[in-house]
């Protein structure tokens, strides 16, 4: 699950994620950024007539380019260009062979065998082997890595024990019988393994470089890659430039000469850069300008549903004012979701009386029990609950609401404060940039916090597993044996119908206990210059640069 950057959330306005919580080591981020090269070239200067230079308004500044230390959508876009997993994505978001040319599983679904392509090399010419895949998966589950989605890999034999430090990494159920073969042994069949292995964090890693350079392995001077591109330079808060990887197995099909990622967090600024022909793609458009964009940039505008949810989380930890379930329910009751989607945003967002996005049509969606109540009935119940908790207009509740910096996030936060004011709730708004915001949520340093999740796999488990007790994405601090048992059962269940019911029950638990305050299902809106081919809308919002081509005759 990926949290969304400010600009991505504006597009949905969206993990979406993501994501969900952002596991960022600020000290590692600072040292990595300080180590990057700077450049005197202008990343926004127009390309010459025959150059294939793609400039992308990408949202926030990455905290890291280590695939196992990233989680935000603004980071995974870059990492996906640099590192190819065993299983990859097509231009339209379908699973296809990546570094593995084929794979198969045993009859009982417990042993998976992956056959790597012949002659694979890292960008420095070193052979890329199955041992690099073993190394990466062991590193992914090592406790010190603190990988954002580590629990998604728990079906692998001993994965939980390795991730919690009970067993050493070499006890993980992965092996390389030879240089081109990887075997993964599961403790039980997994409905999501193929999708999980297509995530960037599961990509093989250059162990020879990591062992030699430690945390500095992601510097441009040190990094070697397996994907379609290599890291040329990283100028913090300015740009990240990628160039083609001549040793990539599909290099002959890559037409771009450069990909330049620009950390433009404010969607209004991204729109201006797009209109000035300074970027070819802008991930996110401002809601306030959406109607104008529809009228004036219709050919460039792409709006469609994605697997993402925009919501707020409550801090359930002792000492938090919203640890009181009555208050959480009152706030959910008083929230007018249709006002946010129709009047504030107006970009086709779907009001959420659920948590798992409705775009996952195979999921048996749960609903708030008050979803069909009138607003008068909801407000009457909300006032009653607040009074029971000891609060009201004559004895107000002081509540801090946090969001990551973006004008549209602020509009929603202000609207929530106004909706809750009749209950005697006085809201103080606090905003920070995305990396700090998600770090503080992960640390439990908040009361009510804005969140967005974009799915990394097309499965309800990806959204619901985030709130398991042992998941680093569990920002609310939910600790429920009942909920954990449902998630664990769904992870192990081989019967599709039974698994869907378990996931339904888990979602219903979140709603019944007001762990979250869902607002809407995402749509995403991006601006893509019509001169680009190979960019295809898809529910996972995956757009690898290796498929893109710019028609320079435009």
UniProtKB/TrEMBL annotation:
Task: Tell me one Pfam family matched here.
Answer: SBP_bac_5
The signal peptide, as residue positions, is: 1-34
Q: Where in the cell is it found?
A: Cell envelope
Q: Which UniProt keywords apply?
A: Signal, Transport
Q: Which superkingdom, per the lineage?
A: Bacteria
Q: Does the keyword Transferase apply?
A: no
Q: Which residues form the Solute-binding protein family domain?
A: 94-473
Coiled-coil regions, chain positions: none
Instruction: Tell me the PANTHER family matching this sequence.
Output: PERIPLASMIC BINDING COMPONENT OF ABC TRANSPORTER (PTHR30290), PERIPLASMIC OLIGOPEPTIDE-BINDING PROTEIN-RELATED (PTHR30290:SF10)
Family to which this protein belongs: Belongs to the bacterial solute-binding protein 5 family.
Spell out the protein name for this chain. Answer: Peptide ABC transporter substrate-binding protein
Recorded source organism is Cobetia marina
Lineage of the organism: Bacteria, Pseudomonadati, Pseudomonadota, Gammaproteobacteria, Oceanospirillales
